[in-house]
Amino acid sequence: MDALHRLTEAANAFRDERDWRQFHTPKDLATGLSIEAAEVLEHFLWKDGAKVAAYLENGGKAELRKELADVMIYLLFLSHDLGIDLERAVLDKLAENAKKYPADKARGRSDKYTAYQDA
């Protein structure tokens, strides 16, 4: 059994033990996912590179770890409930992005792929 499957089963068992599946509509799971992702951003708000490094070294990493776990849990619920194979979706998206951002053209560049598409 792969890691994503184990995580999905563990998250679903937690949810089912509490009878929360009834509240987990796709809209509410997507909303929760967005909120948790925003909570990840909150850890970096108003901090420059040095402040971020200090924050992470002084306990912030442990708090950020919890927020990332929340994001992942919502993502697992949403993909499971919608019947989306998350592993396949990620691999497909990486293949799609590899075409848009060929390494020989995109290496070291942060601009959008349209900036170097062939005319």
Under CATH at level 1, the class stands as Mainly Alpha
How many strands?
0
State the low-pLDDT regions, or none: none
Query: What is the CATH superfamily?
Result: MazG-like
- Strand content range: under 5%
The total tally of domains equals 1
Tell me the helix content: over 70%
The arrangement of helices and strands along the chain is: HHHHH
Cα-to-Cα separation, first versus last residue: 46 Å
Q: Report the major sheet.
A: none
The rounded Rg comes to 18 Å
CATH architecture: Orthogonal Bundle
CATH fold call: Helix Hairpins
Query: Which structural class best describes the helix and strand composition?
Result: mainly alpha
The average pLDDT value, as a whole number, equals 95
**What shape does the CA trace take?**
globular
H/I helix tally = 5
How does this structure look, described?
The structure is a single chain. 71% of the residues lie in helices and 0% in strands. By secondary structure, it is mostly helical. It starts with a helix and ends in a 13-residue tail after the last helix. The radius of gyration is 18 Å and the shape is globular.
Please specify the SSE layout and strand pairing.
Elements: H1 3-17, H2 26-42, H3 49-81, H4 86-100, H5 103-106
Helix pairs in contact: 1-3, 2-3
Task: Provide a short characterization of the protein structure.
The chain has 119 residues and is mainly alpha-helical. It has five helices and no strands.
